[in-house]
Here is the input.
Amino acid sequence: MKNVLFFALFLVAFYSVYTLLHWFFWRGLNQSFVLPVWAKRGIIAFFALMYLFPIANHASSALAGTLPCRGVAWIGFVWLGFLFYYLFVGGAFELAAFAVKRFAEEDLPRRALFIAASALSVMVIAYGFHEASRIQVRHHTVTTAKLPEFITKIRIVQVSDVHFSQLHGVEFADRLTALIKEQRPDLIVLTGDFLDRGLVDEEGIAAKWRALEAPLGKYAVTGNHEFYNGIDHSVALIEKAGFTLLRNRGETRANNAFIVAGVDDPAAARFGEEPPTAKRVLESLPSQPYRIFLRHQPKDDPEIAGLFDLQFSGHTHNGQIWPFSLFVSIPFPMRGGLYPQKEGGTVVVSSGAGTWGPPIRVLAPPDIVVVDLIRKVE
Here is the structure.
């Protein structure tokens, strides 16, 4: 019942915003051009098809093959991205036109503003495709006196928010795993949102990840999308990809040199799973070894202050699409980067390797994170 209510509220919120986006674009179009009846009918028919996009995308993900899945998803998500930017750019132009009319008593050419706003939105979308395709490797160095003498350095590679789907498949997996392999990791950590609905060629994707080698292990935790897309199926795929999934537990590695622990995403509680408690998980661990903690969402949690040495998180996508990133900073001040904690320990937040929704990124490039954990000699 809780899941049904959550889904219903999501649909209401989504379609309210989606309706606003279509109305704003139609208003600008209708005020800028005198459209013949056949053109209006064609545009309204296109709008109607795009209105069905979320439902069609869900159905095609479950029922159709690769081409229908990709076609429905690409058209719908690109159109959604365009409408979002037209609202932002067109809204800014309308405010400018209002100000000029109010203070200079001049009318700016509405048609020129509409064309400029539409063209600029298309240009931003085109750039967004380019940025989303260029995965950066972000390097950080963390020192600690807690590592034993027989370990001088551990290279950890973090990957997060890949979102394998009908948009991101085997080709993306091949490119991403090759980039990770180049870093020569000792330990690989996956911090959630590995997959989305409509995943194409699960076996091929799993095989690419299974071939990755890391002498100290490959560990993962769940993200919210693992639960949205069916936790049993998600767990099976992550384990098939060669990861050890840490669901509210930890494992000691390298002769007790360090512990890797992980906690489920809070979405677990909405799907009948045991509510994850980071504090309980961390307090149950041995106190001496260095503690590496995997948690999908980088929330500021005073309850676990001082209970971990190095936390890896994702989820935020660093906003993914500017200026949406400005609003992401409100619930998640640790949006992307390295964040030393006052009580000790460090939080590392990945911007994510993939995309959710529109397959674009604007001023929030995708990444994998490399952390060289180095023993500090005192």
In short: The longest strand covers residues 136-144. The chain has a mean pLDDT of 91.
